Amino acid sequence: MPLDPVKLSADLIRCPSVTPLEGGALQLLEGVLSAAGFACTRVDRNGIPNLFARWGAKGAKTFGFNGHTDVVPVGDAKAWTHDPFGAEIHGGEMWGRGATDMKTGVAAFVAAAVDFVTQTPPEGAVILTITGDEEGAGRDGTRALLDWMAEQGEAMSVCLVGEPTCPNEMGEMMKIGRRGSMTFYLEATGVQGHSAYPHRAKNPLHALVDLLGRMTAQPLDTGTDHFEPSTLQITTIDCGNPANNVIPARATATVNIRFNDAHSSASIEAWAQGLITEVTAATGVTFALRTEVSGESFLTPPGEFVALVAAAVEAETGRRPELSTSGGTSDARFVKDHCPVLEFGLVGRTMHQVDERVPVAQIVALKAIYGRILRDYFA
C-alpha cells in the first residue's frame, strides 16, 4: 500500500521539534524507514539530532535526498488561527509550523523513496539525510551527517534538497545554486575627547562612516550568468554614547553581504581589509574586523541532473521550472562539497509566518514529482 505523504506530514507537524529539539520527528521517520528496509543510523552531534538512512548496497549508484525536521518558533501561539502543532486541514490546506518549511517536503521524499524501493527496487541505492539543525547554527546538522558519511565511506552520487523553492505556483522554480552569505563585525577605535576640541580626539564614528561609505560607493558587481548582482547591506551602527558633547572612543557596525560566484568570502574580506588600511592611514583610527561566513556561493551547472529534475517537474505540473539561484542559504551549501546538488520543493509563501500552511494537493503532487525523479534517475 502506498505511503500517504499527507498523513506523514501531519504526524511530523504534530512533533514539536523547534530547533534544537527532536520532538519525536526523527524517531517517527526512523520507524517508517526501518519498516521499509532502510538501514537507519542516528548521527547526533553535540546534542543535535540527525538521521541517516540508506536502502541498497554501499558504493552503488546512489540518489540522495536531504531535508530537515526542525522548525522555527511559533511566536505568539494565540495569533494562530489553528493550533500550530495541530496539523489541521481546513479549506483544503494543512496548517501548522513546518507545513511548508519543510516537514511536508521531508514527508514527500520519504513517501516517494519508500514506495520506490518497495514497489520497483532499483539497481542502486537511495540515501536520506535528515537533520534537526537547519534552522539553527547549522554546525552539527547536515555537516555532521556529511562528516560521518565520509568516515563511513558513504556517498551520494547526486542529492536533491526538498526546501520550498516555488514563489507562487507549484513547479515554477528550482534552485541550481545559492549566493554566498557572510557578515562583517567592525569595531573602530579612536581617541575620546570633548566635541568642542576635536583636534585633541580621533573620532571613530567619522572613520567608520568613511569606511562604510567606501564599501557602499560602488556595487560589488553587476551579476554573472546565473546570479543576480551581489548585495552589501549595513545592518547596524552603534557607539553607546549617551552624551552629546563627547567624542566616543569606540564605534561598531555590522555589514551583511550576499555574494555571487564572482567572489569568494576570502576575496571579499581581502577587499574590505584594503579599504580599512586606506581609512586608517587617512584618519589614524584603527579597526578590528571579525568575519562570519555562513556559506560560499555555489552553482550546479545545467546538465544531465538539472535536465532530469526539470523534466520530471514539468511532466507532473505542466510547468518548466525556472533555474534560479535566488533566496537565502540552505543546507545545499554543505552538500555541494559532497556531490552535485539541486533544490526543489513546495510553494513557500507562508514559511516562518503565523498561520503557516500548504494546500494538501501540493503535498501529493510533490511526492509524485520525487517519485518520477527516482524512476527516471534509475531508468
Describe the structure.
The chain is of the alpha+beta class. It has two domains: 5-178 and 297-378, 3-Layer(aba) Sandwich (Aminopeptidase), CATH 3.40.630.10; 180-295, 2-Layer Sandwich (Alpha-Beta Plaits). It has nine helices and 19 strands. The chain has helices at residues 5-13, 25-35, 103-119, 142-152, 204-216, 265-283, 304-317, 332-335, 360-378, and strands spanning 39-42, 50-55, 62-68, 89-90, 93-95, 125-131, 158-161, 173-175, 177-178, 180-189, 193-194, 231-238, 246-247, 250-259, 286-295, 298-299, 322-324, 341-343, 357-359. Helix 3 crosses helix 9 (360-378) and helix 7 crosses helix 9 (360-378). The two termini are 23 Å apart.
Strand content: 15-25%
Work out the number of β strands. Answer: 19
Determine the mean pLDDT.
97
Uncertain parts: none
Q: Helical region count?
A: 9
The separation of the N and C termini measures 23 Å
Identify the CATH homologous superfamily of the largest domain. Zn peptidases
Proportion of residues in helical segments: 25-40%
The major pleated sheet works out as:
6 strands, mixed
- N to C succession of SSEs: HHEEEEEHEHEEEEEHEEEHEEHEHEEH
CATH topology of the largest domain: Aminopeptidase
Q: How many structural units, i.e. domains?
A: 2
CATH class of the largest domain: Alpha Beta
Radius of gyration: 24 Å
- The dominant shape is elongated
